[in-house]
């Protein structure tokens, strides 16, 4: 489980400045890191692609695996799968911010 801490505001600004290109990269990285909590060998390619093009489905699947991995490892985490579906339809960037916030809580401290 190798999770990188990212500044949410900087990531949102980079996504806007690059017209969404950084957002695709950000979604891929988050999906890969979140799914790795559940299964280190899962490449999360399906979840990453869905996060980029169908956010309500991709973030739902990613959050489901992330919540399961946290539960299996005894890490405290509230399952927000329904919230991710609703926000993915209404305001997709909120999903990016919520998932990154959850990942930042588990990130290894910078040395």
Task: Briefly say what this structure is.
This protein is an all-alpha fold. It is built from six helices and no strands. The chain is 73% helix and 0% strand.
Question: Kindly state the mean pLDDT as a whole number?
Answer: 86
Specify the overall morphology. Answer: globular
Q: Strand content of the residues, in percent?
A: under 5%
Largest sheet: none
Q: What count of domains describes the coordinates?
A: 1
Which structural class is indicated by helix and strand composition? mainly alpha
Tally of alpha and pi helices: 6
Helix share, percent? over 70%
Order of helix and strand elements from N to C terminus: HHHHHH
N-to-C terminal Cα separation, in Å? 17 Å
Q: What's the Cα radius of gyration?
A: 13 Å
Please explain how this structure is put together:
- This protein has 111 residues and is mainly alpha-helical.
- The protein has one domain (8-106).
- Helix content is 73%, strand content 0%.
- It is built from six helices and no strands.
- The chain has helices at residues 8-17, 21-38, 45-53, 55-73, 81-90, 92-106.
- The mean pLDDT is 86.
What labels would you give this structure?
mainly alpha
List the helices and strands and how they pair.
Elements: H1 8-17, H2 21-38, H3 45-53, H4 55-73, H5 81-90, H6 92-106
Helix pairs in contact: 1-2, 2-3, 2-4, 2-6, 3-4, 4-5, 4-6, 5-6
């Amino acid at each position: 489980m190798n999770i990188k801490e990212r500044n949410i505001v900087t990531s949102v600004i980079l996504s806007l400045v690059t017209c969404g290109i950084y957002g695709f990269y950000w979604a891929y990285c988050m999906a890969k890191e979140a799914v790795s909590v559940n299964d280190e060998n899962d490449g999360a390619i399906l979840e990453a692609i869905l996060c980029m093009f169908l956010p309500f489905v991709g973030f739902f699947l990613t959050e489901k695996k992330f919540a399961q991995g946290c539960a299996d490892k005894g890490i405290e985490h509230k399952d927000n799968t329904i919230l991710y579906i609703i926000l993915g339809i209404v305001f997709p960037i909120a999903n990016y911010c919520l998932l990154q916030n959850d990942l930042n809580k588990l990130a290894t401290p910078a040395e």
